[in-house]
Amino acid sequence: MQHRTTYQLSLLWTVTFLMPIFGDGNTISARCHSTCLSAHVTSSALHTNGTGSYSLLEECSSNINCSSCIYPCKKSHKSLDTCKAKCQTQMEAVSAPDICVASCNFIKFIKNAKIGVCPSTFGGFAEACVNECEDDQGCNGEKKCCDNGCGRTCQVPNIRKKDYPSRVERRWATITENEDGDSATVRWRAVPNLTDSGFVLYAVQAKNLSQTRSQVSWYDVGVTEETEISVPLQVGRNYEFRIASVNENGTLGYFRPTAEFCLSREPERPSPPFSIETGPVQVINEKIHMNLHWSPPRYSDLPISRYRVFYSERRAVTPSIIAVKEHRLDVPGSETTCVLPDLLPGMKYYVQVKAIARYHDNRLSSDRESTYIFTPTPASNDGTGGKLTQTYVHPEVTAPSGKMPGPPGDLTHDQPYWDNGTLKVRLRWQKPKGFEAIIERFTIHWEATVCSSERGQQEGEATSLETSFELYGLSFDCTYEVWVRPVYDHGWGPFDATIQILTPPCTEVVYRGPRPTCPTPIPDIPSAPINMSYSYVIGETVSANFTWAPPTRSQYPLSGYRIYWAQVKPSSGLPEAALPTIEREEFTSTLLRETRRWYVIRNLTAGARYVVKLQALSSIGGGANVAVDIQTPDIKIQVNPVLPSEKAQTPDSNLNQEPVSPQENCAAERLVGSFLFLTILSILCTCHVIQR
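Above: the chain sequence. Below: its structure as tokens.
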């Protein structure tokens, strides 16, 4: 039975982050593999009667020396020192660190070295006593940096083609769509290895021709000893492929790419955006400019080309017939934030966001996600804006009484824990009041919105007959959004209950049974965020609005930010100038997307001392912290007067309200104006940022 071993170096949707660093990652990885296999087969031939197993890569992984040799070949490394450090720390994968380090040195060498050998004789400028280059990378094209005995000049090398395997020609390659409809298999004819220079491996690259011109580039698919490889593809995109044959000497390069290929399935329209949030506001000429942020669709076959944002006023009192003007904004698909300009202070707005993707000449639009927002008065400028979230109501879903069940109540979660090889957390909730008898089950959906590592992005769905459920298969150090929706005999309920869950890092998790195996992070990568500042917002409670700029140094792409804070106990006895030491478990923390540059910490205690820390996250873990020691203003917060609560409204329910008399309007306006004047105050602080 044939065993196929394929090393997938990068998936289609993570190419930007996994592109190898050492030159053409696929061919260098294949050359490194071939060199290790040569040493492995040579050493093992004494014990296998001169015959190796069919799958050499599989055999290599079971050999201590060979598996240590190929460990650096399978991963991308930013520098030689990083590669060597992993050889010393990844003890489970590397049993022979010296052999692993030797592979790091070999990869460094072949990264800078071009194929061929320097000519044995020189003439003309080639023998000049000048240092035209330091290594092969300093020479154009195929020229190598050659030592002529007096200097170093760029020369055309002598290439013996018989030292390298033949190229895989375009006419030898075929592409077949797989049964799953989401991938294709690329096949080609094997090339003979006419020399004794190691085994022939194949490096495969693909190009997504449907991206914008600036994004179109070749990305690595995998390295294999077989003559075929399965490639995950995205619907509605055109692709080209190319294959290079490689041995331990190197490769003659890629041949011409294949003809364009596209999956047969038609793309579907994207799901709607979600989690619409308001951010800091600015007051300019007595008009409110409010930041709006949302999360991209959970599912989309095609890249989002743009978002369209709709917003309109919702006045507390309106005549029975009124023309409501709807404003529109178009936002590029690469962005998930915008500024709603020129809003009226103290006003309620109905906001909707939809995603748009393009397929040929067609436009695929999602449903609209909606929410209510409230603008502050100019005096408050609290940087938050109120928010009333209302889930879209499906008109066809009603209970027998004509009323619809609300969301599940009292949604909470227990402490996450590690058990039997997976990270779990138990959810608990109550049935909607008044509808306990007709609720049959609940659907649960969870999704990782932000993770400290790219490996954590995932989602899941489940159904529960009970009012509790244990989420499973979670990733460490992630923020999860969870939705629970009731299902009854007439269909799905229209309202979700939502909750946010922050899973702990691997090193801090509570576990039952065996302890999880945690990776060894590289400290202080990336560096700390810079230009961190804050301002206080005094209203019904004290809030602090923090802003920052990205770190100046990061060897890996940023995956997010972690901000955490804790109140300093009055009994600490530390002087004002000292940054107190607080245990990690005392901090409240949250994870933010890599695009966020602000965060509002709400409900702080007036006149209290807090420590706030911020760190940038990358695919290998958290970096250095920037720490702020703050003292909230010692101001008495007045208790709000009791005002009539606003009834929950559907988007157009306020059009049929009974009119209110002018006297009642004036009295209400005077009451609200007096309340706002007495209770809302903005204090801007110049803060001292302590780098830690």
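The longest helix spans residues 25-44.
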